[in-house]
């Protein structure tokens, strides 16, 4: 399958607010897609319509050929890190990942290994409410790595990270591509997206106003 995700003339209206205004886009397998644009331009709502968390007002979203909210409720083979779909404050990082495994009937992911991969110590006894913003961000990314999904959606994964943390996320995203994943990542940071993305969608006021295709992919 060449296009793993397709949005066809998608609009989303919240009361009087047109959050998405006729978005059409295609996502090919095993590439990294950057979503750039100012606050409120529609990046997160686009991700949520792909995931099936938000129902489009008009238009269709297909993931792996399935129409979201029609053929399936949620996007198949898709993991996400979106800060508002949170983790449990009263649990440790490891406990949070173990709970997600139970919820997802996932018996094969190695939570400890995944925590180490994102630079967190699985034996850290701190509860999430005691985590720094950067540690939270890393745990959220770890949650998206559970289940070995084909498509990974990362909403502002470098928020609250220092320069070292940002480089770390960039390297991780490039590794995910090497492993055959398709990654959708949003950021305000032009430099960061230029570093990782093969293709960039630039959003403004609910529209895609520009698309940038990188020649060779990796920087
Ligand atoms: N559940 C909702 N109810 C009402 N309005 C919403 C809802 N979700 C999003 N919006 C509005 O839709 C618009 C697009 O929001 P979206 O979260 O996609 O922006 P964004 O590009 O991801 O920005 P940010 O970088 O701030 O996350 C905004 O005006 C936002 O206020």
UniProtKB/TrEMBL annotation:
Q: Name one GO molecular function term.
A: ATP hydrolysis activity
Q: Where is the ABC transporter domain?
A: 5-219
Fetch the Pfam families from UniProt. Answer: ABC_tran (PF00005)
Q: Which UniProt keywords apply?
A: ATP-binding, Nucleotide-binding, Transport
Q: Where is the signal peptide?
A: none
Q: InterPro entries attached here?
A: AAA+_ATPase, ABC_transporter-like_ATP-bd, ABC_transporter-like_CS, ABC_Transporter_VariousFunc, P-loop_NTPase
Q: Which SUPFAM superfamilies match?
A: P-loop containing nucleoside triphosphate hydrolases
Top-level division of the source organism's lineage: Bacteria
Record's PANTHER family?
ABC TRANSPORTER ATP-BINDING PROTEIN ALBC-RELATED (PTHR42939:SF1)
Specify the protein name.
Abc transporter, atp-binding protein
* Biological source species: Lactobacillus equicursoris DSM 19284 = JCM 14600 = CIP 110162
